[in-house]
Amino acid sequence: MNGPDATDEQWEGLAEVVPLRGSGEWPSWPDHRALPEDDPAEEKRRFMVIRVQTFADAREVAEYLMAQIPVLLDLSSADTDVAKRILDFSSGVVFGLGSGMHRVDTNVFLLAPIGTEVAEPAAGAVPRS
Length: 129
Prior knowledge:
By secondary structure, this protein is of the alpha+beta class. It has four helices and four strands, in the order ααβαβαββ. It has helices spanning 8-11, 40-44, 58-66, 80-97; strands at residues 48-51, 71-74, 100-105, 108-112. It has a four-stranded mixed sheet with strand order 1-2-4-3, with helices on one face. Helix 3 (58-66) links the parallel strand 1 (48-51) and strand 2. The longest helix is centred in the C-terminal third of the chain and has 18 residues, at 80-97.
């Protein structure tokens, strides 16, 4: 079976051919995993809290947003002029990526990538502690 004259009968049964399927139909047979098991829901629960003080910190905000990771941007410790520049820059990044920006508190914003659901509590609802 090592030479070029191997017959079809010799190869038969050595390899199982699995047809390609749509992403909703994978795995092709029960209990088969071709890729390491990643929990995509776990990644969606992750977000970054960034307290910026200098304009150089704005790049980190953009990098997380480009990686589809929500950012809680805290501008409260930054100088007023620096905070305005960072907010302007972050607004441009949010607009360019089609993301969302939500005010959480004075000088605190949630920058949410596409696909991130941000729900506001119903009127009169009190959060449970």
